[in-house]
Amino acid sequence: MRLFLATALTMVAFAANSILNRMALAAGSIDAVSFGAIRLASGAAILVLVVLVTRGRIRLAKTGRWVGVAALLTYIFGFSFGYVSIDAGLGTLILFGTVQITLFTAAIRGGEPVATTRKLGAAIALAGLALVLWPTEGLKVDLLAAACLVAAAVGWGFYTLNGRRSTDAIGATMTSFVIGAPVGIALALALPLFGQPALITPYGIGLAILSGAVTSGLGYSIWYAVLPHLATTTAAIAQLAVPILAMAGGIAFLGEPLTPLYVVATVLVIGGVALSLRR
């Protein structure tokens, strides 16, 4: 029961990241770069604290360090820019659907055996993404924002693949946040140099800290604690709940509409990925 509750809590944290990003950026409470920088800094702070409390000292990981940092930065800022103009539910659908496609592509390129059902499932998931990205009169999707979310998903996919080489998951995660945070802060401070003044309000800062410290930092810590006790397929399937949770949160907290197109796309993406993960 404790394992189930911890896994469910982590999925809620992942979905909450989408909702918090959307709440902050759609309301114009903070700009995307500042949100990402504060998220990185607060995530680094909480992870350093967790490592200090549990281990008594800080040691930066060496294996795949720079790949992890680059992938995390791509994910964080693609995530922030994407949610400027895309609803939380739809954004999460694009994000996690593309993550699954990225991981399957990497598996195929790496020579791993992939069953026909998995290929079919990936194709169905891709069809779901194409459905929500296809321009229609009733649904207008900002293609640049969608591209940012796709880039974020690819970054998260590479971050996940890079993490497979690490024997210390939380240490590697802390390292990526600790090194990535100064880069994010530097980008935020450089905004005025490009004629883009930073937009920061107490409300936006609070949401960014909540996203970084709680739903990212602590959420990732709980997830990494749970993963050793879950089968790989179970861990993958558990993440399929995230788009549904984010969509429900967007409807409940942000007043986002529940349209038939969203429902069909969600069924296609989640159904396709579930099929691809069958034994």
Automatic annotation (TrEMBL):
Coiled coil: none annotated. It comes from the Bacteria. GO terms for cellular component: membrane. The chain crosses the membrane at residues 36-54, 66-84, 90-108, 120-137, 143-161, 173-194, 200-223, 235-254, 260-277. It is a multi-pass membrane protein. Keywords: Membrane, Transmembrane, Transmembrane helix. It holds the Pfam family EamA. Residues 146-277 form the EamA domain. The keyword Flavoprotein does not apply. It is found in: Membrane. Its main location: membrane. PANTHER family: AMINO-ACID METABOLITE EFFLUX PUMP-RELATED (PTHR32322:SF9), INNER MEMBRANE TRANSPORTER (PTHR32322). This is EamA family transporter.
